[in-house]
Amino acid sequence: MTPEPSATPPAPHKPAVVYHDGYYADIGMHVFPMRKYRFVRDEIIHRGLIGEGEVLTPTAATVGQVCRVHDKAYIDKLLQGRLSALEEAVLELPYSRQLVEASFLCAGGSIEAARRALERGMAMHIGGGLHHAFPDHGEGFCVLHDVAIAIRDLQSDSRIHRAVVIDVDVHQGNGTAAIFHDDPTVFTFSIHEQDNYPAVKPPSDLDVGLQTYAGGEEYLMALRHHVPRILDRVEPDLVAYLAGADPYEEDQLGRLKLTREDMRARDRLVFDACMVRGIPVFATLAGGYARDVNDTVGIHADMIEEGFRIGSKG
Predict the structure, then answer these.
(1) Pairing, β 186-193 against β 16-18
(2) What confidence tens digit (pLDDT) does each residue in 250-296 have?
(3) Rg (CA), the chain
(4) What share of the chain is helix, strand, coil (3-state, %, to 5)?
(5) Nearest CA to 189 among 124, 256, 236, 255?
(6) Is there a contact between 238 and 154 (Cβ–Cβ < 8 Å)?
(7) Phi, psi at 279, each rounded to 5°
(8) Could you give the CA distance from residue 61 to residue 202 in angstroms, rounded to a whole number?
(9) DSSP three-state, residue 92
């Protein structure tokens, strides 16, 4: 977890992009495509959205930053390799030192993206969105809750007061809901497939649970109704956008029926709602498990492309 210098900052009219090769950890044959992070980076460079030298390299989050969200006892277990068999089973990832280092780096990436969003209006984190992590344990492929760590970091030095989490992953953000329960400074919104993981869903400030096989029209109608109202009511200093690729119709772990164009429309809606109100937003990738990894990579890259189209207008 040696700190590395950031790359050359992107031109002023572009959103910032944050990425680190260290996000990859070898988890063997697994439905979570760890290699997608590098592929997304390569794809947005191939599309000409950003030059290779403009991608910002984060440093790992410190134990102090992580412990603003997570219990010290849990972090000690991670660092010392003392997860129980049950804890590892709930995490649904094989424990390794590489996985822990990747998780601390990813949390640092969301901190960097959140800070850059305040400077530039928008930032893209090619990683993160690990919304199933709880203060005292990891769950559902999520070791550390990078988005919560970033929000708490910015709140700790008064860079922001209020934040909104907009979570469009196909799975409800149970860790997010638990961490920010009864916290008036962070509004949590999750739109997801109701009859899907997690079985137990702690309540967000607003949950929209869609029926299995719901399509793009119903999904986008719900977003159009709720997102502007949330932003106008809360008036946040920052929006964290968890832009999961798994509502896609060909995803292995979701049964919603959004097309690639539906997904682009979703991202345009969220980014535009933030930009027209002058609210900084940082996006994280969250989930995505399409049968063809190229579809997942393409959806994530589409999200970043839509962000560049809207964020570059300023």
Answers:
(1) unpaired
(2) 999 999 999 999 999 999 999 999 999 999 999 999 999 999 999 99
(3) 17
(4) 40, 15, 45
(5) 236
(6) yes
(7) -100, 120
(8) 27
(9) coil
The encoded tokens of residue 122 equal 């928008």
Q: Helix or strand or coil: residue 224?
A: helix
| φ, ψ at 123 (rounded to 5°) | -145, 150
Please provide the size of the chain in residues. 314
CB atoms within 10 A of CB 232: 10
Tens-digit pLDDT profile for residues 179-218: 999 999 999 999 999 999 999 999 999 999 999 999 999 9
- Within 10 angstroms of residue 203's Cβ, the number of other Cβ atoms is 13
Map tokens 């089973």 to a residue. 89
**Cα dihedral 56, 61, 66, 67 in deg (nearest 10):** -150
Q: What is the pTM of this model?
A: 0.94
d(CA 290, CA 297): 9
DSSP code at position 69: T
Q: Would you tell me the crossing angle of helices 36-46 and 293-311 to the nearest 10 degrees?
A: 50
Q: How far apart are CA 87 and CA 108, in angstroms?
A: 24
